[in-house]
Design goal:
With about 280 residues, this protein is of the alpha/beta class. The chain is built from ten helices and eleven strands.
């Protein structure tokens, strides 16, 4: 686990019960030999707490902002602030995305909030992306800040990447947990999206909650060896510490004949190119 990155980790404070707080989580990852992590929170920004923890850490600790209703949804001002404060990732809506069901919660995990939306957030309008989405792309253009797709649908993610390419935006796009309940991508989607500026996230949590089979994941990796795969834990839930989750995920893949060279690309080289 030396020099690996995990670009999708949850820690408290959070709307959901977590294994540890940001300092505890970073310390556990540093002890395991990580080179860097990205802290994510469905309620909004982790930029501030990540910055403080980073000052006390020997590895890189990054944060970002998730564009759920808690920060006003597709809010260009929230994106602008994230970039100005040194954020590394802007996530499109997650638990408030129109494609996410049930809205505001998970089947396997309940939040501490009591207010849930009746309508989810979409990044598409009748004529393409929403105006707010284009504003966000304009802000991110040319910055070393990752645009992650959150829990938007496969259709929305494909439309987003198409616009980024056609309008020649200089933006790194990360397709979050491709086999999770949403976006639940298939191999044709991966083929459509493959590009030097697009990374594809595969997560331990997806397998842990049986959102997709390991056989399906293996077929996807082996069928698209030229895709920019990034292994993540998406861990931090109670009883699911990130270092152990990522270690178990590595074992699951190597035991199914994914080579050490491929694992190294997915845990070290690809995420490093994404972040820096």
């Amino acid at each position: 686990m030396k020099n690996v990155y995990d670009v999708h980790i949850h820690a408290s404070p959070s709307l959901f019960e977590r294994w540890g707080d940001a300092r505890q989580t970073a310390a556990a990852c540093q002890k395991a030999g990580y080179a860097g992590i990205v802290l994510k929170a469905h309620h909004g920004s982790t930029v501030e707490i990540a910055s403080m923890v980073n000052q006390q850490s020997d590895m890189d600790v990054f944060g970002g902002v998730v564009l759920n209703y808690f920060v006003g949804g597709l809010n260009p001002y929230a994106v602008d602030a994230c970039c100005a404060l040194g954020g590394k990732v802007v996530w499109l809506p997650t638990i408030h995305a129109d494609a996410h069901k049930p809205l505001g919660r998970f089947d396997f995990q309940e939040p501490s909030t009591t207010k849930f939306p009746e309508k989810g957030i979409r990044i598409l309008s009748k004529n393409g992306l929403t105006d707010a989405m284009y504003e966000i792309l304009d802000i991110l253009d040319g910055k070393k800040v990752v645009l992650a797709t959150g829990h938007v649908s496969a259709q929305e993610a494909i439309a987003l990447v198409r616009e980024v390419k056609q309008r020649r935006y200089d933006i790194r796009v990360l397709i979050n947990h491709v086999l999770f309940y949403t976006p639940d991508m298939d191999e044709e989607d991966i083929e459509t999206l493959k590009d030097p500026g697009v990374w594809f996230e595969i997560s331990h949590l997806t397998q842990k909650i049986h959102a997709a089979s390991m056989d399906r994941l293996i077929r996807m990796i082996q069928g698209h060896p030229d895709a920019n795969w990034v292994m993540v834990s998406d861990a931090g839930q109670k009883g699911n510490p990130p270092p152990q989750a990522l270690k178990q995920f590595r074992y699951q893949l190597t035991s199914r004949h994914i080579s050490d060279q491929t694992i190294e690309k997915m845990m070290i080289h690809n995420p490093r190119r994404l972040l820096y």
